[in-house]
Design goal:
Layout: E1 3-9, E2 14-21, H1 23-30, H2 40-58, E3 64-71, E4 76-83, E5 88-95, H3 105-109, E6 116-123, E7 133-138, H4 150-162, E8 166-172, E9 177-184, H5 203-217, H6 221-226, H7 229-237, E10 242-244, E11 251-252, H8 258-268, H9 270-280, E12 283-286, E13 293-296, H10 298-304
Parallel strand pairs: 5-11
Antiparallel strand pairs: 1-2, 1-10, 2-9, 3-4, 3-6, 4-5, 6-7, 8-9, 12-13
């Protein structure tokens, strides 16, 4: 079962999260057509992105979707993960060229240094004129050297955009996508540091994040993928007093619907939709995230463009 565990290091300005996506990650992959499976390297990237995006969404109080995108100039044009407030998530990628075996992040998305990572916060109930917040960082460091892993990209983003020192360890296989996140917290106002009035001056507190970050970085890929959360946390932080919270349950879910597809077709205009009908006899749209197929025949299209017609979100059945 997919789980996310939050914890604090008692008396220290450090918090952590551990996520393991199992059943939900396998369900997400199973939605793709057999002839449309991603190469193993892309599946691993998407798994790591899913784990990272779930960790980031659970870290903020935000009524809306967090969207993690990586886009660039390699054989993978785009990879996207969207996570809702309830930790339901979906993911997709667009592969436009050959992904060589063993290809890493630079070879897939940052061949000529044009790769970017964007994190978007899209409010569920937007105010008039309100736009989603988006932060964008390159897939390279300050000197222009390509970053070799997604975890390094996210750490770079958190430091540049949020001024938060972060350690992130990610791993993914076809069975599990997992991530461990450790963050340094501001000392002032932290209830976790009750009694530590001059915590900034305490060498032990000042060094806590570095020490715990080193422990987190020692987590092996096999440990994150194969061991349960209790065992991972005990192995890594057995000397550290942890305050644990009830686990959360991430799940796969897609927000597509027949109503949304209908609205998209209305946006294209009657003339363009009719041209597809004439050529193919029906309009068929497949969701890139979940593989659901929506079909509209001539009668359906006529209803879409009838004056006063409104599509009901979620109406119709999935094919």
């Amino acid at each position: 079962m997919s789980e996310l565990h939050k914890f604090l290091f008692k008396g220290l300005p450090v918090r952590g999260q551990l996520v393991r996506l199992t059943d939900s990650w396998k369900e997400l992959q199973s939605r793709r057509e057999p002839d449309a499976h991603y190469p193993p390297e892309v599946r691993q990237l998407l798994g790591e992105m899913a784990a990272a995006a779930v960790l980031m969404q659970s870290n903020i109080k935000f009524n809306g979707a967090l969207v993690l995108q990586i886009f660039g100039d390699g054989p993978v044009k785009l990879a996207v993960v969207e996570v809702q407030q309830d930790l339901s998530y979906r993911a997709t990628a667009k592969v436009v060229g050959e992904v060589v075996p063993g290809a890493g992040l630079p070879a897939m998305l940052n061949v000529h240094g044009q790769g970017r990572c964007a994190i978007t916060l899209d409010p569920k109930d937007k105010l008039p004129g309100q736009q989603p917040y988006q932060g964008v960082v390159p897939l390279s460091d300050e000197k222009g050297a390509p970053l070799q892993s997604l975890s390094a990209v996210i750490e770079h983003y958190m430091l540049q955009s949020e001024q938060l020192s972060t350690r992130l360890v990610l791993a993914a296989s076809d069975e599990t996508a997992a991530g461990l996140l450790i963050q340094h917290l501001p000392v002032q106002g932290e209830g976790n540091l009750a009694g530590a009035t001059h915590a900034e001056e305490d060498p032990e507190l000042a060094d806590a994040f570095n020490r715990i970050g080193i422990l987190a970085a020692s987590a092996k890929r096999e440990e994150l993928l194969d061991l349960d959360a209790e065992t991972v946390l005990r192995r890594l932080f057995w000397q550290e007093p942890l305050e644990r919270f009830e686990p959360l349950r991430p799940r796969f879910a897609c927000t597509c619907s027949r109503g949304r597809v209908g609205a998209m077709l209305q946006g294209l205009g009657r003339e363009e939709v009719d041209s597809v009908l004439e050529e193919r006899g029906e309009v068929e749209i497949a969701c890139d995230f979940c593989g659901a197929h929506y079909r509209f025949d001539a009668v359906d299209v006529g209803e879409l463009f009838t004056a006063g017609h409104q599509q009901q979100p979620g109406s119709g059945t999935l094919q």
